[in-house]
Each structure stands twice: as structure tokens, then as C-alpha cells.
Design brief:
The chain is an alpha+beta fold. The protein has a domain of 246 residues: Outer membrane efflux proteins (OEP). Helix content is 63%, strand content 7%. The protein is built from ten helices and four strands. The relative contact order is 0.13.
């Protein structure tokens, strides 16, 4: 009769070589040196990977500058934080793959050699092959939980892309309006420069006292301070935009066009509120996470039943008597019974249930607040624009009277200051209105069509695209 260890070796070698052939191999992944694109035109945007049909259909051509849509496209394609989220999605899919793999059987072998050379004694051995059936009992629930978890991560990534679009639009908005504000302040500074020079000469000549010249000195100083503040805000917005686009701060950005905005009517807002849970990726992600937790709870409940291990055993003792049989291992759930894990999974499910309800309530209230703020801003703008236009006409008339010598310079400065204040207030209101519209659009996800069917895009043209 052939020796069993030799048989075992011959039988195990093919399986060992097959297992080694399927083993993963190591490949180094060097860290980034930090040298990226030096020009925007060097960057590529894979349109097919963009999250919305509107972005996928939009032509990306940075050669003539970046408009607000192209900035959003570039942000989604190149944002470093989004890349980290995509890596997390890869991990979740790897975990789902791992959950579906069957557990490996366990092979054991013991060999004993008698000492002292006893008469008739031979080497003894015990070989066994076992398999844990308990893993098969919970496998289906674990696989479903992992798949739902991967779907949750994918939806969180999609939501992150939508939020990146909103962030890109907001930063574009800030760069645009701070640029407008700086242009207005520089125009005012240029208009005040001759008067400032005249006041300085009069003070040096002793024709004016500092008390009487304070209005002129303060006017120029106020404009200079406002200009410095606006420039700092512009620098910050450009810095944040470079970071969002994954670009070095030295890469020049040429932004063109007007910022993004929407102006939904109350019917559109109400329709969006109704079906928001079926469209918003983050809400769908919470649902997927809740489903994954359901499966984890099922797996924990199944795991409370006795774990069974079965196997086959082949042995030979020192007297050269061979035997073959099988083994069964059975856990006795007398003390643990997986009750602790069941309690944890059940409490976690309740937490996810309540988190979803809280998120939905908060988001619904936020949508209604932003819609009300947007309507209020639109109404306020009409009055403020009328007021700014009236003061602009007064400024023009005052300029003519001052040039003709019919108006004293303190009155002229006061009229200009009032007009400047109205113009900057209007620009600030426009910026706030656009940012509220961007936040509302991002919070809603997309605007359903008038027939109650979602457009399929987070940022469609179903709402009016305001350009003010």
C-alpha cells in the first residue's frame, strides 16, 4: 500500500502550484513629485466620466478661457479630494469582491517519529481536511451588505461630484463679483485722485486746515481700504479655485462669461421637494447604507446559530494501524451566542434610520429657506437697482456741476460716496443671490420637468439660467 504522506504530497502539489499561480504580485507605486500641469490647456477632461448629461454634452475648450460650466467640468475631473473619494469607492468594491469569496479549506498534517528504536514501531501521522460551514450560512447576507455598502460609496462619490460642481460655481461667482467690485473701486479711486492731489497741495500751501480737508482725506482712504479688502477676497477666491481644480497657484486662470444661477418658481420648488428622496445621491446613499445595515443585522442573527466545522481525517499510529474518518466541530451558544453583535447591529440600524429622517427634514427645510431667501433677494434687487441708478444719475449731474464750479467739493464727495455705497451694495446682493441660487440648485439635486419626470441631470436648463 503506498505511503499516505507521499500520496498527500503528490495530491497537494498541483493545488499548491495553482494557488501560487493566482497569487497577487507586488508593484511599487511611487509618490507624486508635486509637478503638475503648468497650463490649463494641458489638462484633459474625460467627458464620459462626468456626472451629469449637461456636463457630458458641453464642449470643453480652455483655449478661449474657462466659463462657469468649464470650471465645473475641470473641478470634477481634477479635484484632489474627489480623487481620494474615488479611491475609497475602489476600496468598497474590493471589499464587496472579498465578501463574495468562499472561505478556504484548512489542511493539517502531523508527523511523529518514535525515539529509542522500539521494536515494530513505525512513524505515525495524522492528516485532516476541514471546512467551516458557518461562513456559508452568513455568506449571502454578508455579500448583500458589502454590495449595498459599495453602492453607498458610489452614491456618496456622485454626491461629492455634485457638491464639487456647486463649489466650483461658487468660487467662479466670487472671482467674478470681486473682480467687478475691484473695477468699480478702481474707477472711483481714479475719479478721486485729482481732488486728493488738490487737497494735498492746499494743505501744504496752508489754504486748507486738516479739519476742513477731513472729508476729502477720508473719502480717498475709505476707497483705498475697500479696494484692499476686495483684492484680498479675490486672492482668496482664486487660491481656493486653484486648489479645487488641482492646479498650482502659479497657473494663470482666464475666466470668461457670467456666473451660474437659477430662479425656480414655487411650483418647481414644491415638485422638487416631493421627489427629492428619489433623486438626491446622498439620500439614496443613506438608503443604501441602511440596506447594508439590514443585511449586517441578518448576518449577525444567522451567526448566533452553532457554527459547524466538518472535515476528513486520515491517521496511522506507531503500531502501523491506519484509520480514516471524519470530524465535526460544533460551537455551543451558551454564553455569547453572538447576542452582543446582534445588539450592536440593531442599535446601528436604528441610528441610520434616525439619521436619514433627520437629514431629510433638515434638507427640506433648507430648500424652502433658500427658495424664500432667493425670492426676497430678487425683490430687494429691484429696489436697490433703482436706488443705485438714481444715485448714478445724481453722481453724473454732480460731476458736471463740480466741473463747472457750481458745486463745492465736499458735497460732490458725499454724492459720490453715496453712489459708490449703492453700487457696491448691489454687487454684494447679486453675489449673495447667485450663491443662494447655487446652494439651492445643489441641495435640490435636479429640477423635475413640468410633467413630473426627473430630467436626469443635476444641473439642467429646466430652470431659467439667470445672467445678471
Amino acid at each position: 500500500m503506498p505511503d499516505f504522506p507521499a500520496q498527500l504530497l503528490r495530491l497537494s502539489l498541483p493545488f499548491a502550484f495553482a494557488a501560487l499561480a493566482g497569487c497577487a504580485t507586488f508593484h511599487p507605486l511611487p509618490l507624486d513629485s508635486g509637478s503638475g500641469a503648468r497650463r490649463v490647456t494641458d489638462l484633459k477632461v474625460p467627458a464620459a466620466s462626468l456626472p451629469t448629461p449637461a456636463l457630458r454634452a458641453y464642449p470643453f475648450n480652455p483655449a478661449n478661457g474657462l466659463d462657469v460650466t468649464e470650471v465645473a467640468m475641470l473641478a470634477v475631473a481634477n479635484d484632489p479630494q474627489l480623487q481620494a473619494q474615488r479611491d475609497a469607492a475602489g476600496i468598497a468594491h474590493a471589499q464587496a469582491y472579498a465578501a463574495g469569496l468562499l472561505p478556504d479549506p484548512q489542511l493539517s498534517y502531523e508527523h511523529d517519529h518514535p525515539t529509542g528504536h522500539p521494536t515494530g514501531a513505525t512513524d505515525s501521522y495524522t492528516a485532516g481536511l476541514t471546512f467551516n460551514l458557518g461562513d456559508l450560512v452568513t455568506r449571502s447576507a454578508r455579500v448583500q451588505a458589502a454590495r449595498a455598502g459599495a453602492r453607498e460609496v458610489d452614491l456618496d462619490l456622485l454626491w461629492g461630484e455634485w457638491q464639487t460642481i456647486a463649489q466650483a460655481r461658487t468660487l467662479f461667482d466670487r472671482v467674478y463679483f470681486f473682480g467687478q467690485q475691484i473695477a468699480r473701486l478702481e474707477h472711483e479711486q481714479a475719479a478721486l485722485a485729482p481732488v486728493q492731489a488738490a487737497i494735498t497741495r492746499a494743505l501744504q500751501a496752508g489754504d486748507l486746515t486738516y479739519a476742513s480737508a477731513s472729508a476729502g482725506l477720508n473719502a480717498a482712504s475709505d476707497v483705498t481700504n475697500q479696494l484692499g479688502d476686495a483684492q484680498r477676497q479675490l486672492n482668496l477666491a482664486e487660491h481656493d479655485l486653484h486648489g479645487l481644480l488641482g492646479l498650482d497657484a502659479g497657473v494663470p486662470l482666464h475666466l470668461t462669461g457670467a456666473p451660474f444661477s437659477v430662479d425656480p418658481d414655487p411650483t418647481e420648488v414644491q415638485r422638487a421637494l416631493t421627489d427629492m428622496p428619489q433623486r438626491r445621491p446622498d439620500l439614496l446613499a443613506l438608503k443604501a447604507g441602511y440596506h447594508a445595515q439590514d443585511e449586517k443585522l441578518c448576518a449577525a442573527i444567522l451567526a448566533q446559530f452553532p457554527a459547524i466545522t466538518v472535515g476528513f481525517v486520515k491517521a496511522r499510529d506507531n503500531s502501523n494501524i491506519s484509520s480514516a474518518g471524519f470530524s465535526i466541530g460544533l460551537s455551543l451558544p451558551l454564553f455569547d451566542g453572538n447576542r452582543g453583535n446582534i445588539a450592536i447591529e440593531r442599535a446601528t440600524r436604528q441610528q441610520l434610520h434616525d439619521q436619514y429622517s433627520a437629514r431629510l427634514l433638515t434638507d427640506r427645510n433648507d430648500v424652502q429657506r433658500l427658495a424664500a431667501d432667493l425670492a426676497s433677494d430678487r425683490a430687494q434687487r429691484q429696489a436697490l437697482a433703482l436706488h443705485a441708478a438714481q444715485l448714478a444719475r445724481a453722481r453724473t449731474a454732480a460731476q458736471a456741476s463740480y466741473a463747472a464750479g457750481n458745486l463745492d467739493w465736499p458735497t460732490w464727495l458725499a454724492i459720490r460716496a453715496s453712489s459708490l455705497a449703492a453700487d457696491t451694495a448691489l454687487l454684494t446682493l447679486d453675489q449673495n443671490t447667485h450663491e443662494a441660487a447655487i446652494a439651492l440648485d445643489a441641495l435640490v439635486g435636479n429640477w423635475p420637468s413640468t410633467h413630473g419626470v426627473a430630467s436626469g441631470s443635476a444641473h439642467t436648463a429646466s430652470c431659467r439660467d439667470c445672467r445678471s
